[in-house]
């Protein structure tokens, strides 16, 4: 998802630096400022484990929360992919989740 690309990148850097799945306090705080076409500031969050959640405030996904969960590589030190869950309408999924 384009709107969360920066936070996903931050989580990936945090994970590579730590050698395990993590998000620093700076990354967690930065997520609160994230805004997108269909969600306002403070609608996005990231856990210390790197899981990103976005609650949609408008559009076809209004009221739903999308969760982006990182999957580590075989060595468990880098993010290999992200899995999107939590949305009820597959045809309205952001392109990065398809």
UniProtKB/TrEMBL annotation:
Transmembrane segments: none annotated. It holds the Pfam family Pilin. Coiled coil: none annotated. InterPro entries: Pilin, Pilin-like. SUPFAM superfamilies: Pili subunits (SSF54523). It comes from the Bacteria. Belongs to the N-Me-Phe pilin family. This is Pilin.
């Amino acid at each position: 998802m384009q709107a969360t690309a920066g936070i996903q990148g931050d989580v990936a850097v945090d994970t590579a630096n730590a050698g395990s799945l993590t998000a620093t306090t700076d990354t967690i705080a930065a997520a609160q400022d994230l805004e997108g076409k269909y969600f306002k500031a403070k609608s996005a969050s990231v856990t210390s484990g790197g899981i990103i959640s976005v609650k949609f405030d408008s559009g076809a996904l209004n009221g739903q929360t999308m969760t982006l969960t990182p999957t580590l590589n075989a060595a468990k030190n880098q993010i290999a992919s992200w899995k999107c869950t939590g949305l009820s309408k597959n045809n309205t999924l952001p392109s990065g989740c398809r």
